[in-house]
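Final report, Chapter 2: Outcomes

The project's central promise was a pipeline that accepts a single protein chain and returns its three-dimensional structure in a standardized token representation, suitable for archiving and comparison. That pipeline is now operational. To close this chapter, we reproduce one record exactly as it appears in the project archive, with the input sequence first and the structure output second.
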Amino acid sequence: MTAPTVDVGRRGFRAPGTGFMVGGSLIGALGAYLFQWYGARSLDPTELAPISALWTLFFILVTILLVPVEQYVTREVTRGRKAIPYDLKPTAVMASIGAALGLAYIAVNYETLFASDPRYLVQIVLLVVGYALLFVGKGVLAGSRRFALVGWVMIVETAVRLLAGVVFLWLLLDATSMGWAMVTGGLAILGLGWWRHDKGLVKEPASPARGFLLGYVGGTSSSQMLLAGAPLAVSFLGGSPALVSIVFITFTLYRAPLTLILSLQGRVLPYLVGLSHAGDDVRLSRIAKNVVLGGGALAVAGGLVGWLVGPEVVALLYGPEYEPSTIVATMAAAGVMAAAAAQVASQVLVAEGRTRLLGLAWFGGLVAAVVTAAIIGGAPDTTVAIAFTTGEFIALGLMALLAIRR
């Protein structure tokens, strides 16, 4: 049996299915916001607080532990190696860690954030298991350049979750209904049979899973504490359940650019792997430089838009009870754009297998955010927003040094 040959260098981003993958990502992002919008319109901020916390916790666990799995599988399948069943073991380890951490967090905040409801304990376990398989599937499809099918994964996931959310909330107007809808969406993509496209060779990995994943997790753990931890940080600083929901809605809405990037980075990575394999360091550096400079400019523009119309946009979409302050909207918009640029630049390091360097940039940003929060004080939402933006700009600067300099 011979491995499929994949031309990742010359064809670049013109491979069949790219447009559909981008469209699927846009539909997925829109569906996620419709799901949250429907929940916010159906429940008041206090009632929505458990789902705000569950979604935030789930997003952090997925991006820290399971996105690295997707990137690893994508990189290995791109290089012609068979992923299943060999990569299921590290996937199971990461999923087990995620489930244990999720259970621990819910147990600690059982009364304050999760209304002492044991159903959230079951939901976090099912979410981590279901999405572990989903991200392996995305990695297999992206690595084998089945980009249209990656688009279908995102469409099916978000459509099933949204439909289930509407039906479950209609049957039982309760926050746990949204949790069950999230579980249903993650498991739905098993019906696509993505494992049939894993047709590579059985051979040694180009990068051992342990080293690749440990380096990546070290970086993403800091980045996601920065990016997705805002609602949890507000709760830690003494914010009310309603304030937690307001910050959650604001940051999730403004996180759209980064959500798209996380969905589409599987499309970018095969191309960068091809450049790395060809030893084209000049082009890799140029790509990283353009991303960092463009991202910095977009971050400034995003902050300006957040200052001008940010609170009004949130109030218009979700209701006046969810309207954030102007400073929170400004900082969230600017910080998310900086985070998006840093995430794209980080793909250069991932393509080269230098994932341990990711931790330097993201940890530096996290330290900057913690120090900023300790210095400025003030209202929980304002403190967290300013600290978040400071950390993201520091992380972007450090990522520039690591990804551009060879």
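Archive annotation: The radius of gyration is 20 Å.
This record, like all others produced under the grant, will remain available to the consortium after the project formally closes.
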